[in-house]
Recover the amino acids of this structure.
């Protein structure tokens, strides 16, 4: 199929569109309200919709990492978001994409693997599943994460809140030029929501670790607009928009993290890297529920 061909699944509430480049979502359309929930990748603001982060999450120091005592170059968030996936299964409510390791991927990540991405719609929800299969003769070390951006119906960030299933100690881990600098900042103690504003993103993404809540919600205070995301089983969460932007917010469940300032060890020693044994398969899912 052509790189720009759009593949869709439809039910009576949602129309989901994807592209083979990066197996990326390109549209989440409410049929009843004709509202587009997914950010539409305006290049002058942010040119992506919902990139898949693999085999790393975040940034590496000098864009290099060490696997088995050899250095490999990888750009921020890894290569999967920029490669063509194969669409292997098509059903009325389900799409399955596959990325297989190649000489290109092995020049950056020295392992054989298959990465499967599944999209399934159930009523007013989208279920996203990542499956990683180690086809190498040795264990592999990797991270994976999601980065969907959600379009805001009213472009006033201070009219939105982030809500959590449970009361949390909301401590963000701070970044300097994309790397964790060792500092933290307390947003609130024993709270289950906080208001958004543009100043929160002057220090890059809001990153939380090991939340108790099984879901989070992006909610508009003056309408029915809600985006609810399950995060159970995802140890890290990022919330992000461009500095000064009030048009979209990304909710990002992660299985890994950017490097910390000064880290120079093997990838296997970095926080958030997962070990996958020979011929093993790991699967991670999250569900997004839409209301407007």
């Amino acid at each position: 199929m052509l790189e720009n061909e759009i593949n869709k699944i439809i039910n009576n509430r949602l129309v989901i569109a994807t592209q083979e480049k990066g197996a990326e979502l390109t549209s989440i359309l409410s049929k009843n309200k004709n509202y587009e929930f997914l950010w539409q990748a305006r290049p002058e603001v942010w040119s992506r919709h919902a990139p898949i982060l693999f085999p790393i999450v975040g940034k590496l120091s000098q864009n290099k990492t060490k696997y088995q005592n050899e250095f490999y170059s990888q750009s921020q968030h890894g290569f999967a978001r920029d490669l063509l996936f194969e669409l292997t299964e098509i059903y009325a409510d389900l799409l399955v994409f596959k990325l297989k390791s190649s000489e290109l991927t092995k020049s950056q990540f020295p392992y054989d693997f298959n990465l499967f991405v599944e999209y399934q719609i159930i009523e007013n929800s989208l279920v996203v599943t990542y499956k990683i299969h180690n086809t190498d003769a040795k264990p592999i070390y990797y991270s994976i994460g999601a980065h969907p951006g959600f379009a805001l119906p009213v472009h006033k960030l201070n009219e939105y809140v982030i809500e959590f299933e449970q009361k949390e100690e909301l401590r963000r881990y701070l970044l300097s030029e994309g790397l964790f600098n060792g500092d933290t900042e307390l947003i609130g103690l024993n709270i289950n929501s906080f208001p958004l504003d543009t100043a929160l993103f002057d220090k890059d993404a809001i990153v939380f670790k090991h939340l108790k809540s099984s879901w989070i919600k992006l909610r508009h205070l003056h309408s029915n607009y809600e985006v609810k995301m399950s995060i159970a089983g995802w140890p890290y969460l990022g919330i992000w928009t461009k500095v000064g932007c009030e048009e979209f917010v990304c909710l990002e469940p992660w299985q890994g993290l950017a490097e910390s300032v000064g880290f120079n060890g093997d990838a296997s020693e970095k926080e958030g890297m997962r070990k996958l044994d020979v011929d093993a398969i790991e699967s991670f899912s999250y569900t997004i529920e839409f209301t407007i």
